[in-house]
Amino acid sequence: MDIIPFCIICGNLIEYNINRPLCQDCFYNSKMMKINDCVDGSFCHSCGKKTPVTNHYPECMICKKSDRHSNFIDEAYLLKLQNYKHMPLSERIKIVPRWTEVKKQSHRRSYLPHIEVKIVDVLNQLNLNTTDVFSNEVKDNKKTMNILKTWQKGSCVDPPSAIDKEPIVILDGRHRILAAHFLKAEVIPIKLHNSNSQ
Fold first, then answer.
1. CATH 3.90.1530 domain extents, the chain
2. What class, spelled out in words, does domain 75-197 have in CATH?
């Protein structure tokens, strides 16, 4: 169930690229000289709905990601929430969780090679409602919906991270795990933090 993206100017189908949401013809015709140049468009890059957009803000209110730090409820949030809450399982399983490659080193931490973990083995660490995924606090729901939207667009997110203990202890990625659980994924990659490197 990948999102089919559109050129924000002519509305033709193109590859999804949030940084350049224009087809080749419109890009050259727009006379964009610098990346900061603003170009007005008429079509949402993600759904093709006719609406005023720009290359800096190329998605309509429904398609753009929610402010994940806010508990503010607006019409766009409620509509997205209803879409996901009532999404049939047959549609859910079409969304594929995509994960970025796990690097062994980062600028802050040293990671061991990632492992595959059964989601049921880490759900109890999330401190979130995992039975009714979207009955959590508003900002938690927004974070989960943003991850699902990213996967619908065919993009990747970083795997959750955990301390290398027995059992493992989740450090980061509760909403990624919850989103994968919503899609009925059974296993997820976890990048293990080497606690001995600190």
1. 75-197
2. alpha beta
